[in-house]
Design goal:
binds zinc ion; five-stranded mixed sheet; binds 5'-O-[(R)-(carboxyoxy)(hydroxy)phosphoryl]adenosine; 342 residues; 11 helices
């Protein structure tokens, strides 16, 4: 059985083919970074137009890489949301069209669920219960999973996502887009203790995140000390800001561990590519004597392998195969705070 997964939730057009035993035969990602770089962030209208021009080519390239033809595909997997509505609709309509024409099942997946799945792609045996920290450009969320497919959203950001805060500060300092990888690289040269940042705290003791305060504090310091690329403390500033973001993430994770007592920890999403975050996360898990896993960098940022593998899992659980042509995209996180996700 071959399943073709498609992902177009933000600014990557991606396709992947996987087998029923979760082997990834091809995984193609076409990034739109260059298109959005002059604007310092994703321009939604440009993103959806670019998906329209790229999707055909990306799917064809993916099939070429595994020497398959479209009529050999047995099922389709597609990201339904959350994400940019125009971008999501391009992938969803494309997948629906294929499923309808070839009369094959179509399985929709949630983008955050797919990010969590990216950890299981390479590590099938992570013991449950699991605490999953999803850190991307659009989301920063903490999920508790008692068992497979059982998600409880226990914390989410109340304002900016961690990746968004990194991207915005990088934009302000004219470092290019996306800013996360640039800060990751430049921060290595700096002293993370040089600039003080107070950690965000929720007065209601919830496990929610907040990064707008850190972002405002960073902007204030940039103005006060006139930080720019040529400033002698430029690298120190970036290292300190990066450290503040990481401390905020891990502080909530630590509180989540205390409350929910998981066996394993997962870190996933685009920001999970950050070298210092990966190291600190793994060190934290080791100290707590917990199993832990961070996906390989190629599976952290948006990709279709995570969509396809999750779709195969879901397809296997379905009693009836479905051709949900009425399926619609959703732009925002499910409103399921504190409740079981599905
Ligand atoms: O998961 P993702 O590809 O897209 C969304 O679902 O949002 O995440 C993109 C985010 C961007 O904010 C980008 O700056 C960040 O991931 N990112 C990084 C790194 N690579 C990508 N942040 C920190 N360090 C990195 N190496
Ligand atoms: Zn993502």
């Amino acid at each position: 059985m071959y399943l073709l997964g498609i992902e177009t939730s933000c600014d990557e057009t991606a396709a992947a083919v996987v087998t029923e035993d979760f082997k990834i035969l091809a995984n193609v990602v076409l990034s739109q970074d260059e298109l959005h770089a002059p604007f310092g962030g994703v321009v939604p209208e440009l993103a959806s137009r670019q998906h329209l021009t790229s999707i055909d080519y990306v799917v064809q390239e993916c099939l070429n890489r595994c020497h398959l033809k479209l009529d050999q595909i047995d099922a389709y997997g597609i990201t339904q949301g959350p994400g940019l509505i125009g971008s999501l609709l391009v992938g969803l309509s494309f997948a629906k069209g294929l499923a309808y024409y070839f009369k094959k099942p179509l399985v929709s997946v949630d983008h955050l669920e797919a990010h969590i799945e990216s950890a299981f792609l390479e590590n099938r045996d992570l013991p449950f219960p699991v605490l999953a920290l999803v850190v991307s450009g659009g989301h920063t969320s903490l999920f508790f999973m008692k068992k497979e497919f059982n998600y409880k959203l226990i914390g989410k950001t109340r304002d900016d996502a961690a990746g968004e805060a990194l991207d915005k500060i990088a934009k302000f300092l004219d470092l290019g887009y996306p800013g996360g990888p640039v800060i990751d690289k430049l921060a290595e040269k700096g002293n993370p203790e040089a600039f003080p940042f107070a950690l965000p705290r929720m007065t209601d003791k919830s496990l929610d995140f907040s990064f707008s305060g850190l972002k405002t504090a960073a902007l204030k310091q940039i103005k006060e000390y006139r930080i720019s690329k040529n400033h002698p403390s430029f690298f120190d500033f970036l290292a300190s800001f990066e450290k503040a973001i990481i401390r905020a993430l891990l502080a909530n994770l630590a509180r989540g561990v205390k409350t929910f007592k998981p066996c394993s920890l997962i870190l996933c999403g685009g920001v999970a590519k950050n070298k210092k975050l990966r190291k600190d996360f793994l060190r934290f898990a080791q100290k707590q004597c917990l199993n832990s896993f961070v996906p390989s960098p190629e599976f952290c940022t948006d990709n279709a392998a995570m969509v396809a593998v999750l779709a195969v899992k879901k397809l296997k659980r379905q009693r009836k195969t479905s051709f949900p042509l009425g399926l619609n995209a959703y732009p925002r996180l499910y409103s399921f705070k504190g409740k079981t996700w599905k």
